[in-house]
Amino acid sequence: MKYGFDIIDGNRVPQLVINGDFTITNIHEGTVHVETGCLTVEGILQGTLDVQSNAKAIINGQQHGTVIVASNSSIEVNGEIQGTTTIARSATLVIGETGKVAGTLTNDGNVILRGIFGGAQSGNGKIQIEGNGYIKQPTIRDGIHYYEW
Q1: Quick check: 103 and 84 in contact, CB under 8 A?
Q2: DSSP result, the chain
Q3: What pTM was computed for the model?
Q4: Residues 13-66: pLDDT tens digits?
């Protein structure tokens, strides 16, 4: 088996592998690997999302967990991501007008921001702010950064 298992409610659950176009409409718990095609999340994905080279993901619902976007792949967020997001070189993250990304962003690729981003940033990539897009600034109390949504 190429990928491991997740432990969900005490049970070993194989990680979901996408090869082609696929839509999550309800709640999915566990890791998802998009090898080819396009994953569309209309519901809620609770777990790691791994978008591999030459694949795509569209988040119209919610993603809770780590997101990894490999080189030559892309992700479009019209809903929300809550968690750590890593964008590889030659990869693209588009945060649409209704999109929100909250959490740590490691950006070595390209981010097009038309919605809201809030969280710590690192990496050598570019952030291009368009339209009403903006970077939410934290509230600092006792030296701790808080993002109040």
Answers
A1: yes
A2: --S-EEEETTEEEEPEEEES-EEE-SEEES-EEEEESEEEESSEEES-EEE-TT-EEEESSEEES-EEE-TT-EEEESSEEES-EEE-TT-EEEE-TT-EEES-EEESSEEEESSEEES-EESS-EEEE-TT-EEPPPEEETTEEE---
A3: 0.93
A4: 999 999 999 999 999 999 999 999 999 999 999 999 999 999 999 999 999 999
